[in-house]
Amino acid sequence: MIRYFSRQMLHVRKGENGQALVLFLVVVCSVMTLLFVSVVAHNVAASRVACANAIDAIALNAATWEARCLNIIAALNDGISKCMDIIFWTCAVWAVLAALAAFGIGVPAFNAYTEYARELVSKCWKTAHMLASWSEQIRDLAPYLVLGETIALASKLGVEGILHPFDPRGPHDGPNTLELHLEYGPPIHLIDAFEPVFTLLSRLNKARRPDGTLKAIRNVLNSTINFILGGNNKPIRKLVPEKDFPKRQFVRFVGSRKIQPLPIPFWGNHGTERIFEQAQAEPYGGGAESMTWKSRLTKWEDK
To answer: 56, exposed or middle or buried, with CB in 10 Å at 0-12, 13-18, 19+?
Structure first.
């Protein structure tokens, strides 16, 4: 009986050899397809993140170089202020010595200090002019530094794109001018630092007692002041941020990067597809003489 049923089962299953192999191949193909799709999706996502990071780095690097240039200009402005302070306090000490010399006290010291003050004031005023000239050169050079660093970093990161604004030498406040949006501050005159000496001269001129020493002191002061002011008396003007600086000083970078190819035969991804991203950054946190400029990424928007 058992043999009979065994023969019947073999007869029923006769001709069905290999059906499990078909099911196995279907399952394996499905799993492999899902695996490949997951790998490709992960590769695209990773490439997108890498592209976004690269674009952000380029935009932030451009704003960082603008912040560095602004810090240099702020340092030069601070140097101008220090030069004017030296001139003012030199004149204050000079006025005190002149007042004492008018009463016959320390005349040799006054004469020696007059020669020293004339040389020191002239050098400080010349240095202040030189610092102002350097700040203008930094302002003019900044766009080229930003463009050069942007090109170098984009090439290093394998990114192709364009920086906006892109024109380094367009008209001031032009729509596509890559410049530091700075303006000239109020003029600084050398004569303003001579206030202590002018105050003393005003009082000496009002003195009624005829005294040869008093007259000699007045003549020395007048001749020395005329000599100093007769040189380069052109006023100095610092470069300061414009009133609408936060709205205008920003950089944008729009670029693309190739998706990294996968070593999968016949898949069709050979590194020709590209991902496009954009980023915006700006310098912030400083001032005309405050060397605290930094850079940050900002939300993409029309300013």
So the answer is: middle
Q: What is the pLDDT of residue 217?
A: 81
Q: Are strands 239-241 and 294-298 parallel, antiparallel or unpaired?
A: unpaired
Nearest alpha carbon to residue 87 among 194, 225, 233, 236: 194
**Pairwise CA distance, residues 224 & 114, whole Å:** 8
H/E stretch holding 94 reads helix 19-102
Q: Is 159's pLDDT higher than 60?
A: yes
- Let me know: does 253 contact 278? Beta carbons within 8 Å: yes
Contacts of 130 (CB under 8 A, 6+ apart): none
Q: Model confidence over 125-155: pLDDT tens digits? A: 999 999 999 999 999 999 999 999 999 999 9
**Which of 302, 297, 300, 287 shows the shortest CA–CA distance to 62?**
297
Instruction: Tell me how far apart the alpha carbons of residues 121 and 110 are, in angstroms, rounded to a whole number.
Output: 16
CA distances from 118 to 87, 96, 223, 226 (A): 10, 15, 11, 10
Burial class (CB in 10 A: 0-12, 13-18, 19+), 104: exposed
CA torsion, points 243, 247, 248, 251, in degrees to nearest 10?
140
Residue 110 has a CB neighbour count (10 Å cut-off) of 21
Here the contacts of 40-43 (C-beta below 8 Å, separation 24 or greater) are: 40/262, 40/264, 40/267, 40/269, 43/259, 43/260, 43/262, 43/269
Element (H, E) at 284: strand 274-284
CA dist 111 and 221 (Å) reads 10
Alpha-carbon distance of 93 to 96, in angstroms, equals 5
